[in-house]
Amino acid sequence: MPDPSLRSDGRTAAQLRPITFEAGIAPHATGSVLVGFGATRVICSAMIEPKVPSWMRQQGVKGGWLTAEYSMLPYSTLERKPRDISKGKLDGRTVEIQRLIGRSLRAVIDLQKLGDNTLWIDCDVLQADGGTRTASITGAYLAARLAVQKLIDGKRLAENPLADSVAAVSVGLFGGRELLDLNYVEDKDAEVDANVVMTGRGQFVEVQSSGEESTFSPEQLTSLLAMAQKGLKELSAIQTAFLTKQLLQR
User: Fold this and answer.
1) Domain extents in the chain
2) What does the pLDDT look like over 199-225, one tens digit per residue?
3) Do the beta carbons of residue 44 and residue 139 sit within 8 Å?
4) Residue 65 near residue 52, CB atoms below 8 Å
5) CA distance 84 to 44
6) What is the pTM of this model?
7) How far apart are CA 221 and CA 199, in angstroms?
8) Measured between alpha carbons, how far is 54 from 84 in angstroms, rounded to an integer?
9) What distance in Å separates the CA atoms of residue 33 and residue 23, rounded to the nearest whole number?
10) Rounded distance, CA 118 to CA 47, Å?
11) What is the CATH number of domain 19-248?
């Protein structure tokens, strides 16, 4: 008989989905990673542009800039998702997520050390099974770190502008249980849903939490954050192992 304490995909409540990273998925990008959180798959790429936004020049702001774009490809969901360009504008969810990715990466980068350059982060969802924004942030950092190393190797940057790593994970209440790294089935019917972004040194970057036609207590929020911290510590270790292997191969 199935173990009733396990989730539908066989995980325990505090267990991450299988996490995978594959480097070099987009050869023309300065750095790129295909990230997998279970069945969720996202291509994260980083490219350098040797100029800064016009508002920085006009305001005399020194240093570089980092910005992000996010999209879900039409075949990433069970029913075809129309491209934003076909609607003539970005939907609110897309804008929210790409701003979150940008904020998360800017929290760990010294823009002065980036020089007069813009680091573009692109996250394209190939397959969505919950947690696309958290997978995007986690993979975006890796793509940025690989891109930065390529620029350092090519003498285009004097030093690494990334002061720390960053990763993200979801937690929530589903069927009255506290769960880590929700898949789509859990996420769509969760009573409480939260996305937590944290640096490798354990500092919060952002916490997004909301009750879905429900409420949650201060004690439940504290417990969910503790669960997220545990998962993010694991994610950070996986990121470090991946980067160590990639950078040793250079």
Assistant:
1) 19-248
2) 999 999 999 999 977 899 999 999 999
3) yes
4) yes
5) 19
6) 0.94
7) 19
8) 25
9) 4
10) 8
11) 3.30.230.70
